[in-house]
Amino acid sequence: MGQVVVTLNSRTYRLECNEGEESHLAELAEYIGAHVEEMRRKFGQVGDDRLILMAALVVTDELWALRADVENLRAQLAEARRDKSASDENARSIESQLFAKIGEAAVRLEGLNSRITENPGGGH
């Protein structure tokens, strides 16, 4: 079992974590600590519990904003996929029409070639 020592608002806390998670836990605590320090500068020494609660609310607000951003990006991705699918279908339709026109042109050219071959002088 790993351990990390964290200091928030001049108080030291010993936290346990899974082996290998120490540096991640320390980073998280440092992030919260920066918010606690910001709250202490803004509001003064209003007590550890209140400062940590206010910092937690700020971090939770950041999390909720990021979650909304992720949902928005997911919606945009789904729309882009739908648009791509519609574009792909449109491209297939245009390609099919193009092949049909090329086929028609080939038939007409073969007909012209046959007439030219059958009547090399052109009747003049």
Characterise this structure.
The protein is mainly α and 124 residues long. The protein has one domain (2-118). The protein is built from two helices and two strands, in the order ββαα. It has helices at residues 22-43, 48-118; strands spanning 2-8, 11-17. The protein has a two-stranded antiparallel sheet. Strand 1 and strand 2 form a beta hairpin. Helix 1 crosses helix 2 (48-118).
Concise synopsis of the structure shown:
Pfam families: ZapA. With 124 residues, this protein is mainly alpha-helical.
Question: What's the layout of helices and strands?
Answer:
Elements: E1 2-8, E2 11-17, H1 22-43, H2 48-118
Antiparallel strand pairs: 1-2
Helix pairs in contact: 1-2
InterPro entries: Cell_div_ZapA-like (IPR007838), Cell_div_ZapA-like_sf (IPR036192), Cell_div_ZapA_N (IPR042233)
Keywords: Cell cycle, Cell division, Coiled coil, Cytoplasm, Septation
Protein name: Cell division protein ZapA
User: Biggest β-sheet: count, sense, barrel?
Assistant: 2 strands, antiparallel
Which spans have pLDDT < 50 for at least 5 consecutive residues? none
Number of domain modules:
1
* SSE series: EEHH
C-alpha-based Rg, rounded: 36 Å
- What fraction of the residues are assigned to beta strands by DSSP? 5-15%
Mean pLDDT across all amino acids: 91
Coiled coil: 63-97
Subcellular location: Cytoplasm
InterPro entries: Cell_div_ZapA-like (IPR007838), Cell_div_ZapA-like_sf (IPR036192), Cell_div_ZapA_N (IPR042233)
Subunit structure: Homodimer. Interacts with FtsZ.
